[in-house]
Structure to design on (396 residues):
């Protein structure tokens, strides 16, 4: 029987027997219980692979801003039989407003109506994570609190050693472990050789409803090189800050107090609702802070190892497509392996050849327009962005 393990503790039994005849394709190891990892697990389980997911965290990684679901992502979720569950959790349509320091509105956009349309949904990240998790939890093995320490490829498979000391022999390995992918580091090389720094940093914290703005509303305030953002929902508020830098800044990613000070120092002199926002995020270490970057790689696979989602082609938060891109990547990879069931090399090439043009288009657009939209560099660029907003020509 398959099981879910949290460290050494057995948690949830599965209904699938290891002797299931669908296991003819062999064992697969997926690193990362993310959107990419869970969606990839679903697709490969349906193809008959025996799937194990390992996740370094002690449980699902929760938190973050809502996810936009549209286009190909909806088609994939329909094939997975999950689109009705997504629709049931869809958030109401939102109004997006750009604000001046006096809280007057420079320009706004949004779709009227009480529910998301059939062609586009916005859903809380945790709700989508739960939907994907529920879709695979009884059919695959999940090991939380586990990561890879060694990976050795042979002609007929891959030998993987986990940090528990256990060794697994599998046919293929899928790296679905995010922007700072352990799989990418082990197989393709470490450091920042594939990281494209986009010239800024982003902070995000989800807090209980604050009264700072109405529900179903996003407000953005910008000055040259800085941005403050509020997303309002019925029961919570997203508080975000973004700022530009000429080069990467040195900080300890484990020192949350230092990261809070970085935000306080850079935004403490601003007006609008920023003082109240800083008060709302003070003293709590449960937040996201990181550089704004993309992952750009010459190839997403090597031998029997392939990357999916942010691990291979992070498009950056500025693109607004991270969650969708992960699901699209998982769907494309499963389709490629179905087309070439006995030839992983051809399947991996087909997956990359078909998806790379779209990824590069999204990355280029985020790089050329995203930063100037979020954080205009100077007064001249800010004035141009404000003119576009007032004219209703806000690009993307």
């Amino acid at each position: 029987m398959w099981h879910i393990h949290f460290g050494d503790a057995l948690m949830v039994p599965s209904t699938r027997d290891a002797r299931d005849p669908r296991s003819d394709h062999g064992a697969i190891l997926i690193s990362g219980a993310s959107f990419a990892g869970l969606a990839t697990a679903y697709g490969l389980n349906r193809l008959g692979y025996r799937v194990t997911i390992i996740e370094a965290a002690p449980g699902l990684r929760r938190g973050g801003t809502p996810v936009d679901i549209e286009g190909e992502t909806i088609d994939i979720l329909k094939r997975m039989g999950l689109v009705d569950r997504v629709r049931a959790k869809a958030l109401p349509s939102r109004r997006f407003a750009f604000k001046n320091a006096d809280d007057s509105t420079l320009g706004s956009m949004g779709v009227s109506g009480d529910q998301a349309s059939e062609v586009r949904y916005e859903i809380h990240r945790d709700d989508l994570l739960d939907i994907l998790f529920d879709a695979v939890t009884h059919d695959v093995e999940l090991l939380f609190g586990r990561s890879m320490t060694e990976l050795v490829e042979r002609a007929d498979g891959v030998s993987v050693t986990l940090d528990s000391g256990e060794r697994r022999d599998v046919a293929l390995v899928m790296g679905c472990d995010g922007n700072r992918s352990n799989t990418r580091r082990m197989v393709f090389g470490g450091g920042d050789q594939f990281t494209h720094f986009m010239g800024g940093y982003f902070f995000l914290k989800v807090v209980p409803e604050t009264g700072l703005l109405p529900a179903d509303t996003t407000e953005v305030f910008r000055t040259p090189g800085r941005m403050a953002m509020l997303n309002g929902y019925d029961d919570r508020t997203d508080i975000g800050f973004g700022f530009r830098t000429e080069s990467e800044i040195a900080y300890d990613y484990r020192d949350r107090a230092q990261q809070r000070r970085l935000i306080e120092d850079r935004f403490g002199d601003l007006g609008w609702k920023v003082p109240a926002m800083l008060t709302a995020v003070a003293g709590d270490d449960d937040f996201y802070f990181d550089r704004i970057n993309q992952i750009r790689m010459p190839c997403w696979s090597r031998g029997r190892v392939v990357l999916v989602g942010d691990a291979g082609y992070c498009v950056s938060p500025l693109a607004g497509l991270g969650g969708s891109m992960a699901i699209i990547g998982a769907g494309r990879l499963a389709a490629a392996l179905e087309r070439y069931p006995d030839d992983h090399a051809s399947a991996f090439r087909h997956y990359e050849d078909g998806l790379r043009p779209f990824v590069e288009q999204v990355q280029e657009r985020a790089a050329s327009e995203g930063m100037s939209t979020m954080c205009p560099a100077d007064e001249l660029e800010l004035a141009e962005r404000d003119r576009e907003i007032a004219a209703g020509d806000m690009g993307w």
